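Key result, reporting period 2: structure in, sequence out.
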């Protein structure tokens, strides 16, 4: 791909849900010949209440496994693809009947869940390749997992880049790859984003476009803040902070392959292609800018531990974290005082195990005082060098105090670009509105 501009375009399920959406995608593809590689998801919802093809495939798999009738759901899936094929005039070019005969015969052999679920992307890839009239590359031949189901990023990159070097244009279906024994393996839900990122890295792309049904990331959750603004540029790191707190447009793991090669990701809206979208970059100028975005989550608890002279006891915190590790419990943050330590973790991680945790820490670390508080929410105010800007922190705390919202915890990493603040769960929406309002 040397010398020539190369863009990888991944299209999500809503962007390829029916004939009309396929037409929009083709227009986008033809508008810019530097768009060379296309990564489709399975057809998504066409209207509220509609089923995504991947969800229908889950239903198909379950019915087959439980020995129930599969023909009705199978023919529902067939008609989704056949509807697109027929209205786009691809009847001669795509042998859907042959593909469905194959699926039917595999169903008789109790296939793996991953095989069944991967068929949505595979079939949509066949349709898109026929419609754009460019070659199809089966993801099973170029995306690899090890025997434990972990992605093999370097092997994938080697094989995929060799393949793409011979193929200046191609469609590569998202969401799946293969294991060493040839069986198929899928990513977690929304994983076509990861395929797109792997293709962008292997192609040495100038840009990874992620086409979806929104015009990028919003600076706050629109269910909490009235008409928040769109974020124009954001760094990989800032995005990671917001995604952790619950801002979701892109699969979390999609950042890592392109980050290795400094390839920007741009979120675009298939329905409004003239919108610039949000660009995710390795770094950016932050002069004159304060808040990039704010996001929060209210599914957290805190284990509060007090111990006199904790600072003088070598390995005290490590001991407590080891106790949690031995119970198989992971934590998120550990803000600390002089003689106290707070361990923040998700409610789900603790559910039903509070007594075990308290007992194990009491026995193994003899704290002076320990308690679990379940009423914690955190929000992260993310931006340039926030933790180094005293005006920023004071504006956040003033906004909270004006609203009479007590601050339970706050922390920020050394030279970090976000400020994390803990409040009661019930105060979270008000806190986000108040802080966003200061910087809007
Ligand atoms: N079709 C899969 C899902 O619904 C993967 C994807 O769309 O990225 O999760």
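The corresponding designed sequence is given below.
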């Amino acid at each position: 791909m040397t010398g020539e501009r190369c863009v990888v375009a991944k299209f999500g399920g809503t962007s390829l849900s029916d004939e009309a959406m396929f037409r929009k995608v083709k227009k986008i593809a033809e508008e810019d010949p530097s768009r060379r590689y296309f990564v489709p998801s399975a057809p998504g919802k066409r209207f509220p209440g509609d089923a995504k093809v991947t969800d229908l495939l889950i239903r198909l798999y379950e019915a087959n496994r439980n020995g129930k009738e599969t023909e009705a759901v199978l023919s529902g899936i067939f008609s989704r693809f056949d509807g697109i094929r027929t209205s786009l005039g691809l009847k001669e070019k795509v042998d859907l009947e042959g593909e469905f005969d194959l699926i039917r015969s595999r169903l008789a052999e109790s296939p793996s869940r991953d095989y069944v679920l991967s068929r949505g992307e595979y079939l949509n890839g066949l349709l898109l390749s026929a419609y754009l009239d460019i070659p199809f590359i089966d993801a099973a031949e170029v995306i690899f997992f090890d025997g434990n189901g972990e992605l093999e990023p370097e092997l994938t990159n080697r094989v995929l880049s060799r393949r793409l070097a011979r193929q200046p244009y191609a469609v590569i279906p998202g969401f799946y790859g293969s294991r060493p024994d040839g069986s198929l393996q899928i990513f977690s839900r929304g994983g076509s984003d990861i395929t797109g990122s792997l293709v962008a890295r292997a192609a040495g792309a100038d840009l990874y476009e992620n086409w979806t049904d929104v015009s990028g990331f919003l600076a706050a959750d629109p269910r909490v803040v009235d008409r928040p603004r769109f974020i124009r540029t954001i760094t990989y790191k800032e995005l990671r902070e917001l995604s952790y707190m619950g801002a979701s447009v892109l699969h979390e793991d999609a950042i890592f392959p392109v980050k290795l090669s400094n390839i920007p990701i741009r979120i675009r809206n298939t329905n409004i292609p003239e919108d610039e979208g949000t660009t995710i970059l390795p770094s950016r100028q932050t002069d004159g800018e304060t808040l990039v975005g704010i996001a929060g989550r209210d599914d957290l608890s805190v284990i509060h531990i007090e111990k006199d002279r904790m600072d003088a006891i070598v390995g005290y915190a490590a001991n407590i974290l080891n106790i949690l590790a031995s119970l198989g419990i992971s934590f998120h943050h550990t803000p600390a005082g002089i003689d106290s330590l707070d361990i923040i973790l998700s409610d789900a991680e603790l559910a039903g195990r509070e007594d075990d945790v308290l007992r194990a820490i009491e026995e193994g670390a003899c704290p002076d005082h320990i308690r679990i508080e379940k009423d914690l929410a955190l929000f992260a105010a993310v931006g340039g060098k926030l933790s180094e800007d005293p005006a920023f922190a004071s504006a956040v705390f003033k906004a909270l105090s004006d609203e009479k919202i007590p601050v339970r915890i706050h922390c920020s990493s050394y030279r970090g670009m976000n400020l994390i603040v803990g409040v009661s769960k019930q105060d979270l929406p008000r806190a986000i509105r108040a802080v966003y309002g200061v910087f809007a």
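The longest strand covers residues 293-306. Residues 13, 41-42, 52, 54, 120, 174-175, 189-193 surround aspartic acid (CB under 6 Å). This case is discussed further under Risks and Mitigation.
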